[in-house]
Amino acid sequence: MRAVILVNAYIRAPGMIRQAERIAEELRLRGAEVSIEKNGDFCTYVHENAITSSKNCDFVVYLDKDKYLPRMLEKCGLRLFNSARAVELCDDKMLTFIELSGRGLNLPDTLPAPLCYYPDARVREDILRTAEERLGLPLVVKKSYGSWGEGVRLVRTHEELLQTAEEFKTCPHLFQRRVGIPGEDWRILAVGGRAVACMKRKNERDFRSNIEAGGRGIAAEPPAGFVAAAEKCAAVLGLDYCGVDLLDEGGVPYVCEVNSNALFNEAERVTGNNVAGAFAEHMLHCMGA
Ligand SMILES: Nc1ncnc2c1ncn2[C@@H]1O[C@H](COP(=O)(O)OP(=O)(O)O)[C@@H](O)[C@H]1O
Ligand SMILES: [Mg+2]
User: Fold this and answer.
1) How far is the CA of 208 from the centre of ligand 1 (A)?
2) What burial class does residue 247 get, using C-beta atoms within 10 Å of its C-beta: 0-12 exposed, 13-18 middle, 19+ buried?
3) Alpha helices in 30-83, H assignment, sequence order
4) Whether the CB of 152 sits within 6 Å of ligand 1
5) pTM score of the predicted model
6) pLDDT number for residue 186
7) Which residue stretches of the chain have pLDDT < 50?
């Protein structure tokens, strides 16, 4: 069985490099041939009215978020972990919520901000007033695309809301009700729709619990219902592997976001669970190996 692990052409963060290496290690332990490759080599492109690919492998572990390449690879018949659809749904936080809605999951009330195409236009006050009325203050403003807590803001006053909305106005973003305990969330990693590692994340200095924003992982068992909520997210979005962020509002799990390429280094360290091993096992099982 031959696998290609595809990472971003500009990969820099040590955590992302380590993630690819850990998956490669666990796949090799199970007899697979593996190479880690960067996108941008143009092995797959539109050529003579069709998609052509010279990627020579049985499956692809897709660790980037770019949405074009996975679509092209699938069109050439390759099995991707995660699928193009799942990557797309997770990459856009609003699209994730649209897909998860109506499935019995708890989602914080969320309003997609209308896009503004003119950098010189002023954000409309009436839009902000409606957001404030529906969600209350403080509320969360979030870029639809982003990770590691970058592009996620807590605004406490109308002035802060105006300032952030002005800053974000030309990129897709949303307004969301603030829920849970500031600086705390649950990160649940799921493989093949089953939770394989859970940790609490806590940040004493910031309302964002991301490890990259100064949060730390703590080994702990989530309250009942949290694991089921995470597994449901994975199933609805069709994810082979994911990290689900859940906020705890009085013991009730609220979905914060779902990551198709969640880093598992901290979760493996904190829980001692072999997340990469479970992922490798799942992929080889799906491929009939
Ligand atoms: N609606 C919210 N209420 C309270 N805290 C939130 C909310 N949305 C995000 N956060 C906090 O900010 C962190 C980052 O937000 P998230 O949506 O997961 O974006 P990112 O992709 O940057 O991780 C979350 O882990 C959580 O701690
Ligand atoms: Mg997150």
Assistant:
1) 6
2) buried
3) 68-75
4) yes
5) 0.96
6) 98
7) none
